[in-house]
Amino acid sequence: MVAGGWSENGSASENEVSITNVDFTDTTSETFDIYGGLTDAGAVTGNNVSITNVEIANTNSTFIAAGANGIDGGDGSTSVGEVSNNTLTINGTLEGANLHLYGGYVDNANGNAINNKVIIGTANGDKTTITDRIANAHEEDINAVYGGYSEGSGNASDNTVEITNAKVTINRITGGYTIDGNADNNTVSINDATTTAENIYGGYTENGTAKENKISISGESTVKNAYAAKTGTGNAEKNTITISGGSVHDAYAAVTDGGDAIGNIATMTGGKAEYLAGAATDYGDNENANGSAINNGVIMSGGEVKEVAGGEAFEAGAEVKGNYVEMSGGTAQNVYGANTMYATATGNRVTIGGDAVVTGSGDNGYEDFNGSVTKNFGVYGAHSGMNGSDENTGLGALSDNAVIIKDNAQVSNAYGAYSYGDSEVSGNKVAITGNVTVGQVNGVENEESGNVVGGYSATGSADSNEVTISGESGTLTVDAEFIAGGYSGSNTATNNTVSLKDVTFKHNTEIYGGYSDSGDVSGNNVAISGKIEGDNGAVVDIYAGHSESGIADGNKITLNAGADVSKANLHGAVNEGGNNELVIGEGVGNNSWSGTVNSISNFSRIAFNNVKSVSYTHLRAHETSL
Q1: For position 507, what pLDDT does the model report?
Q2: What angle do CA 286, 290, 294 make, to 5 degrees?
Q3: Between β-strands 493-494 and 525-534, what pairing exists: parallel, antiparallel or unpaired?
Q4: Residue 12 DSSP class
């Protein structure tokens, strides 16, 4: 053992250990320890350890801490000595077995670990290399770096791990760790480094709260899991993760095993990730993990990701509320404002703009650690259930969620809300402006593509959802092929709306106010302003509502002032029957409406409001009243 200062029950402060160009080759003990300051029970403050070009041989474990409390016992049940402001610095090379590296270490019941640091490497110099002789060491208690560590109920706060211009292979990197205390304001920074790690945590606590912890990753690092905060039943708030390079499998600003996750943000400007998310609240073994995910977000301007989610909470009793994804660049397979099973999802949103691309999964989706592969289709304001699952009943409601697609974005599909099961979907919206592509992108073939739907539920109802497609400054060209305000597989689709203004469709396109495979469809509306047409002979068919085997009744199409549907076909429904209405000249005021409709069919009533003239190529109406 090497120690700069040691006290049995007193404090250990301001001690220094500096070891340079030394090979500890004659050690014969099972472990080899280096401490800046060490005490059994007192405070440990302001100690420093500097390691440069050191090899530690012939041991099974290496333990290095700038400051440590309680290592040799003391009165562990009552000791409250704080470990603070200690720094471990490593440059050059360090080689050992089962390396445990700490800025500050507390092994007593109540002591805090505050403002301790581990600094590995420097930006101006040769690359630092840390080598552990235990190959493929992926067990949780092997190979670890901690800024600050508290074994009991003490807090771990304001601790830091910085890795710069270094090659490090390690199992676990943690800014601040505690079992029962709070982990706040801890930081892990990996800067232009080649780091390989199983797990990175900004702040970790099993039973406390975790607030304002940070992770940043750049360079060519490879990481399995990176969580700015991880808690059990405690809340995680305002934690952040930033990725600008390297590769991460799962990257979350916060995860909990039942605690609430509030205001956590994940940012990506480059690099790769399999899963990028603001927060998830069922990350553990707690079967009753019903924490809520509120106001968490992802901001993505570059990089490549398979799954992107603003917030996730899956159990009944939880809320997924106010979460968001803002994507202005980069590529993703699927994007969710909210992801859930049995929790309710309200007020979540996704904005896809700039040159961002969302492809859908195709046959190369995200694979979780249980071998399940995602096969979803694109962009979702909120999403519930699982594709192909037999557990898609009793799902939470999806309401008032939104998707905005703009600029030059390319997406495979866009859904304001989507449920694979029986979620009631209501008040959800999709809005499209700009030079947008909705369909097959980047050559990825999905089970379906080219769909824009305000709200979809496989077996639940779809009510008061909306799609708006608008050319705000000239005609908007859209690549979509199927558009519906609301869509239910086997339930009702009611009071949904599609609003179109100055849109040219590249392909044959079907547009429905409301749609159901087998449920009734009523009260839906398609409102048209400006010019609606197909490009190069593409056919545009607009339906007030349709049900494959149910009743479509009380739906309407509205031609507002300035509407030009001379190259579009208007239908009350696909088949004759039902009291569906065409309203011509809505909102013209004192002006008169005149125009041409390519064809009109299956309306029970056509209403003219201050219409000067109307012409049509084909008129086929069931029990039409003009």
Answers
A1: 87
A2: 130
A3: unpaired
A4: E
Q: Which residue has the tokens 């496989």?
A: 458
Q: What are phi and psi of 148, to 5 degrees?
A: -140, 140
Q: What is the dihedral of CA 204, 202, 71, 58, to 10 degrees?
A: 120
SS (H, E, C) 65-93: EEEEECCCCCCCCCCCCCEECCEEEEEEE
Q: What stretches in the chain show pLDDT beneath 50? A: 73-77, 137-138, 590, 621-626
Q: How far apart are CA 402 and CA 415, in angstroms?
A: 8
CA distances from 164 to 201, 226, 427 (A): 17, 17, 48
Structure tokens at 604: 């029970």
User: What is the predicted pLDDT for the residue at 301?
Assistant: 98
pLDDT tens track for 173-205: 999 999 999 999 999 999 988 889 999 999 999
DSSP 495: S
CB 129 within 8 A of CB 166: yes
Asked whether the beta carbons of 518 and 550 are under 8 A apart, the reply is yes
Closest CA to 433 of 393, 383, 475: 475
Q: What local confidence, expressed as pLDDT, does residue 387 receive?
A: 77
- Give CA–CA dist 463/467, Å, rounded: 13
- Amino acid identity, position 494: T
d(CA 205, CA 398) in angstroms, rounded, equals 32
Name the one residue in this structure whose structure tokens are 């979460």: 323
CA-CA distance, 429 to 411, in Å (whole number)? 16
What confidence score (pLDDT) does residue 77 get? Answer: 46
pLDDT at site 74 = 46
Q: Are 170 and 99 in contact (CB under 8 A)?
A: yes
Instruction: Please write the tens of the pLDDT for every residue from 464-475.
Output: 999 999 986 666
